[in-house]
User: Which sequence fits this backbone?
């Protein structure tokens, strides 16, 4: 899957939003650590993909019309076996259709269940004056309520990524609180720099969200991703 | 020196200046620029109103009623005509092959009204087509103290300025120039550029970055037209010299005010802040902070690390100076064992102490030899990156007034220390009950290039800001 082919496909379908499967595939190819996800359009396909991947897995609805997947019952976590995957597929389809009757649903994404880490967000937006800008923050209320985020313009150097991480107020959380081990800051820096490279290489990218990225004592992993591209 | 070949070079180093449309009784623009004439520059007035010509000629300035009568190329023009005729003046300037002009004229897009926007569009289109260096409009234009070109009659005319200043506001440009001069800091070149519709802040910034007469650059900016160009230019500039960026319109309410002031649209403040830091520039929030940082950068040395040695006169001030510097994010470490061993041989600990901060009045007792001994010890201490020293008007003003030589000796001791030391050094002299007297003696410090501050907090903020960019 190349960026150009995904872009062409999305534009042919009149989409500017790349779905999670597409976004993760492109980001993984660009060296951004993210969980691999595959698109299943049927119950059987979801089950065989899960078998091949190994349990536990996560299923998420894939639809260009659904921005908040969990709000429509579109996310099922920690599925332990084939039967659970089958039930989850049916449940997602039923509740997503009930919540958003007009949504175009492409299927579900199947991916391995990542172990929980400290949640951070790496985002990118296009500022009318400054062009592509990266954002970094801690997940959840730290970003949504406290706006505890830092910004740098693309392209970033290593020192810029380091400053982005160190200047958020919630930085002590990444250093480890209440006996938690510190997060792997080098892995976070690498994630930010790879996103910067990706965005620089593809000016069609208007917005990008890795939300959340799990920061571990050793490594980092994006477990959800979305990309918005410019209109043709 | 100038920057040969740069598109702004002739304008920034003018030999021929024209003032267009100045009016009596004050002839503000001609009066501002008399020093240019006195220094041998060719100054013209362009005014066709017969009522004004007598007053202009009384100033000894040659007036022409048509710009076509000026046969030399104009390097810089000040245009102070009503907005309706501004584009005719621009046409004449372009015909003259003039190198640039500051348009004092206002009433353009910043008004938000249709006529103003239309007149600005006409002006911009003509200037861009001719690649004309239009400063403003809605601005005070250039202040070039070496050439004698000024935007205010109180602005000094000197040849030794090293500070470049750029301002989207005329008031802030003038006020910075005047207040910095009052603090012994002099401007090399300053541009007030208002609506910035042809030349933007990046164009001037590029010139000042390349100009080797300019050692430090400050700016007041409300918004930039081309953010990417500003980002690239600011990065280029900070690689050459320190740059201080004071952003106007940081709040939602302030950003609305910039719209009607200079028609500027502001990027989200958090993106702006990240961009400034990414470029290695120093962000400030007001005139005082800007001046304080420029003072340290011009007079002092940049702190090589965050570790402060703090010298106060009394116990209470020892606590206050420590809180101020620690709150600013700097550290107040223990001195080395060698320093303590040496201090222990002479420091008077009755009513004093020498941990860090030093509470030292009782030890020094007016002896410059003792002060010198302490300063040398701290200068040699490997745990110390920078020093801040309090002088107390409350205790010393009476003595200094009675015996001015004692003040001179103190200043001399500090200046001597600063000259031999590689460590950043700042002095805090609170005006206390002697505001008038302290204002009187401050120039003595500035003349010796001592970074003098009125409060611990302002000194600490300046050190911390400069420290943050390494």
Assistant:
């Amino acid at each position: 899957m190349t960026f150009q082919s995904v872009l062409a496909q999305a534009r042919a379908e009149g989409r500017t939003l790349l779905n999670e499967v597409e976004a993760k595939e492109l980001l993984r190819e660009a060296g951004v650590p993210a969980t691999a996800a595959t698109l299943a359009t049927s119950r059987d396909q979801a089950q065989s993909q899960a078998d091949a991947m190994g349990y536990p897995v996560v299923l998420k609805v894939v639809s260009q019309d659904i921005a908040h997947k969990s709000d429509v019952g579109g996310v099922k976590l920690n599925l332990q076996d084939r039967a659970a995957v089958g039930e989850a597929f049916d449940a997602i389809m039923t509740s997503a259709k009930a919540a958003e009757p007009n949504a175009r649903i492409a299927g579900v994404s199947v991916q391995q269940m990542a172990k929980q880490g400290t949640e951070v967000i790496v985002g990118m937006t296009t500022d009318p004056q400054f062009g592509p800008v990266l954002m970094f923050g801690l997940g959840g209320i730290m970003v949504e309520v406290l706006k505890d985020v830092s910004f740098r313009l693309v392209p970033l150097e290593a020192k810029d990524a380091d400053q982005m991480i160190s200047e958020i107020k919630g930085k002590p959380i990444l250093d480890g609180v209440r006996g938690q081990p510190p997060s792997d800051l080098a892995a976070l820096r690498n994630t930010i720099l790879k996103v910067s490279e990706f965005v620089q290489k593809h000016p069609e990218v208007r917005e990008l969200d890795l939300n959340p990225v799990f920061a571990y004592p050793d490594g980092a992993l994006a477990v959800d991703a979305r990309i918005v591209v410019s209109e043709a | 020196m100038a920057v040969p070949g740069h598109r702004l070079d002739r304008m920034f180093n003018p030999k021929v200046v024209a003032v267009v449309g100045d009016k009596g009784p004050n002839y503000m623009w001609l009066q501002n620029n008399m020093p240019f004439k006195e220094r041998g520059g060719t100054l013209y007035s362009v005014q066709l109103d017969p009522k004004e010509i007598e007053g202009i000629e009384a100033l000894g300035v040659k007036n022409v009623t048509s710009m076509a009568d000026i046969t030399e190329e104009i390097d810089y023009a000040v245009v102070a005509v009503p907005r309706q005729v501004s584009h005719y003046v621009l046409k004449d300037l372009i015909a003259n092959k003039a190198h640039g002009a500051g348009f004092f004229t206002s009433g353009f897009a910043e008004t938000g009204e249709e006529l103003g926007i239309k007149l600005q569009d006409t002006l911009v289109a003509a200037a861009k087509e001719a690649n004309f260096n239009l400063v403003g409009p809605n601005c005070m234009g250039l202040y070039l103290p070496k050439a004698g070109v000024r935007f205010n009659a109180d602005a000094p005319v000197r040849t030794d300025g090293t500070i470049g200043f750029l301002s989207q506001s005329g008031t802030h440009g003038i006020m910075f120039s005047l207040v910095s001069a009052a603090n012994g800091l002099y401007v090399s070149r300053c541009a007030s550029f208002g609506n910035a519709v042809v030349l933007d802040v990046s164009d001037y910034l590029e010139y000042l970055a390349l100009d080797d007469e300019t050692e430090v650059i400050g700016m007041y900016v409300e918004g930039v037209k081309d953010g990417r160009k500003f980002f690239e230019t600011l990065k280029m500039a900070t690689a050459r010299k320190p740059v201080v960026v004071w952003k106007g319109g940081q709040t939602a309410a302030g950003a609305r005010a910039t719209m009607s002031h200079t028609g500027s649209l502001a990027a989200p403040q958090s993106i702006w802040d990240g961009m400034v830091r990414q470029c290695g520039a120093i962000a400030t929030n007001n005139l005082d902070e800007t001046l304080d940082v420029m003072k340290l950068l011009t007079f002092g040395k940049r702190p090589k690390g965050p570790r402060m040695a703090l010298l106060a006169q009394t116990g209470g001030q020892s606590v206050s100076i420590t809180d101020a510097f620690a709150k600013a994010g700097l550290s107040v470490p223990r001195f080395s064992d060698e320093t303590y061993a040496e201090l222990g041989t002479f420091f008077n600990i009755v009513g004093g102490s020498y941990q860090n901060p030093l509470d030292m009045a009782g030890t020094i007792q007016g002896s410059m030899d003792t002060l010198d001994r302490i300063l040398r010890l701290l200068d040699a201490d490997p745990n110390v990156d920078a020093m801040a020293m309090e002088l107390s008007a409350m205790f010393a003003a009476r003595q200094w007034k009675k015996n001015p030589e004692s003040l001179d000796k103190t200043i001399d001791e500090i200046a001597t220390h600063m000259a031999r030391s590689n460590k950043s050094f700042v002095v805090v002299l609170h005006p206390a009950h002697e505001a008038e007297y302290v204002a009187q003696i401050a120039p003595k410090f500035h003349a010796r290039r001592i970074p003098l501050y009125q409060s611990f907090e302002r000194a600490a903020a300046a050190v911390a800001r400069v420290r943050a960019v390494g």
Observations:
- The interface with chain A takes residues 223-224, 226-228, 231, 265, 267-268, 270-271, 273-275, 277-278 of chain B (CB under 8 Å).
- The two ends of chain B are 28 Å apart (CA to CA).
- The first helix of chain B runs from residue 9 to 12.
